[in-house]
Amino acid sequence: MVDVNLFDGHPVIMVDTIMSLRRLIGVFETASIIGIDTEWKPMFLSTVEQVALLQVSTRSCSYLVDVIKLEEEIGEEEWMEFFKALFCTESSMKL
């Protein structure tokens, strides 16, 4: 695995396993600010688009959540746990 930094001291971590997703859930508990962005899988001539990559950043680290890869490994319950931790944690501001 290649170590990548967005800028000096700010690593970028790939989240593509259930274990790495669970570690990210733990990060939400202590983060004061969380930035969120998405990338979409192109579906030409289709009315349905699917999120391919979810980008989540804190003050100290950025995470790339590979939604397509994780869909092969986790189910609805795990997704609900993740999104509840991401969006319903009152101690952090979401941008």
TrEMBL record:
Q: Which residues form the 3'-5' exonuclease domain?
A: 13-90
Q: Which domain of life is it from?
A: Eukaryota
InterPro entries reported in the protein's UniProt record: 3'-5'_exonuclease_dom, Exonuclease_MUT-7-like, RNaseH-like_sf, RNaseH_sf
* An MF annotation (GO) of this entry: nucleic acid binding
Q: Name one GO biological process term.
A: nucleobase-containing compound metabolic process
Output this protein's name.
Answer: 3'-5' exonuclease domain-containing protein
- What organism is recorded for this protein? Parascaris equorum (Equine roundworm)
